[in-house]
Amino acid sequence: MGRFPLTKTEKIKRFLASIEEVGEHWIWKAARCGRNNEYGVWEGYNKERHTAHKWAYILFVGPVPSGMQVDHECKVKLCVNPKHLRLLTPGLNNAALNKTTCIRNHELSGDNLYLTPDGRRECRTCHRLREAKRREKELTQW
Hints:
By secondary structure, the protein is of the alpha+beta class. Helix content is 30%, strand content 23%. It has four helices and nine strands. It has helices spanning 8-16, 52-60, 90-97, 124-140; strands spanning 19-22, 25-28, 32-33, 39-43, 49-51, 69-72, 85-88, 113-115, 121-123. The strands form four sheets. Strands 3-4-5 form a three-stranded antiparallel sheet. The chain has a two-stranded antiparallel ribbon with strand order 1-2. It has a two-stranded antiparallel sheet with strand order 6-7. Strand 3 and strand 4 form a beta hairpin. The longest helix has 17 residues, at 124-140. The chain starts with 7 loop residues before the first helix and ends with a helix. The mean pLDDT is 82.
C-alpha cells in the first residue's frame, strides 16, 4: 500500500468498513477512546484524530462550526449514523446528557461541580483524585 493521501471517496469507503448496521444505528466497530472506550475514534485527513461520530458528521453533513459539538440525538455513543447526529453548543450538549453524577457516581452539583470555560461540566472530586495520583507518580519517578 502506498503512502499517498487517500481521496475523500477512499476515506469514506474505509470509514464505512468500520461500521455495522444495527437497526437504524450505525455502530462503530474500530478504534475507541474515552474513559470507558465509549466513543469511536477515527484518523481523518492529514492525520487528524477525532471521535468517529464527529467524522461521520464532517464526511456526510459538513464542517463542524467553531464552538459547536456533535451530539448523539439517539444517545447511542457508538452510533455514527449522520441522521442521528446534531450540532449543539457545549453547554446544551452537557444539558442534553442530563448528567447528575460523574463516571464514579460523585454528585455533579454545588461545590463539586466545575464548569470549564467551554461549558463542560467536571467533577472536582475526580479532579483532585487525578491530581493526587499524578503527584504520587511524579514522586515515585525520582
